[in-house]
Design a protein that fits this description.
Blueprint (H helix, E strand, L loop, with lengths): L1 H20 L8 H21 L11 H23 L2
Length: 86
């Protein structure tokens, strides 16, 4: 249960960071930001796992933060692109 809550909190932070680094105005709610951030975290962790990156590291894992933020930015961009076509 703690892992799920941690992932949701990490997803919210990563989603907010991704929106901060993106250009322009994104009309997303906090829930949408969190969900897309969680999707970015999951995709980022899958990518890192595919390259054999360790899951447990000491201290702040800057590589994981950067990869997950980039993945969340891409996820938010895809979502906004699909929402704009409707």
């Amino acid at each position: 249960m703690g892992n799920i809550i941690g992932t949701l909190i990490f997803g919210l932070v990563i989603g907010a960071l991704a929106r901060l680094f993106m250009k322009g105005n994104q009309n997303l709610s906090i829930i949408a930001t969190m969900l897309l951030g969680v999707v970015g975290v999951v995709i980022g962790n899958l990518i890192l796992g595919a390259f054999g990156y360790p899951m447990d590291t000491r201290g702040i894992d800057w590589i994981r933060w950067v990869v997950c933020t980039v993945c969340a930015s891409v996820t938010i961009s895809i979502y906004l692109g699909m929402a704009a076509k409707k």
